[in-house]
Amino acid sequence: MLSREQKDLIASLSTNYKTGRALSHDDDDENESPHHQGHGELNIIKPPLNCPKWACIILPCINHIPSMKLFKSIVPREAEVRIGSRWVCYDASSLNRGDIIRLSEGDIVPADARLLSLGPDFVNDGGIDDDSSGLYEGEEDDTLELIVDSNQITGEPKPRIISLNPDRTVNAVELYAGSVVLHGEAIAVVTKIGGDVLLSRLMREGKWPPKQSQSEWQIVSQNENEEGDDNGITTNNNNQEIV
Description:
Layout: H1 4-12, H2 53-58, H3 66-74, E1 78-83, E2 86-91, E3 100-103, E4 112-118, E5 145-149, H4 151-154, E6 160-163, E7 174-175, E8 180-183, E9 186-192, H5 198-204, H6 211-231
Antiparallel strand pairs: 1-2, 1-3, 3-9, 4-7, 4-9, 5-6, 5-8
Helix pairs in contact: 3-6
């Protein structure tokens, strides 16, 4: 079930755990898109070198700078969002504060968010129609856990492992945009987007990439350049995952 902290957070964001933000009076309205209509800031994280497009065309080497390559590997592109009674896949840039999102193994966290529950299904949120058992809807596994890697954002050396508390709640852990879900599924609420997410703030303060990640990507970039020199070509399609 949801903790008091999580319920207060949901209320402060004017959202609903099971239906998301109110977009219309009819939760099943098929014409409720575009999702971001009527809202201001987009969930767009600017790259570390925010050059105009013409500069990237004239100077393609900009895209091969280690920090730019790392940024491209972690920038979120899609998000699974709760719209009324449905889960809908949207472009991550359309997210708003208060959106209820579902995360699955392999996903890149699309915005800064707070964890609400583990597993793909909703838990009883303590509402008037819920019993007090706190059991998951369709899920009774006490071994549920979520493993999230934030190394490329914060430099944390080890992934975070989040599991259920004895009372079957889960701590409202903050998940950062650009982090990778290594294992498990979860439901979370978006708390920060675009220029307000931790990744954006770290870049503005000159604290990103983390030193460890930066040195690793410099090694990868150097190896690519050496391979390109040996073959007489420049490679730009290396998708190696740094572990």
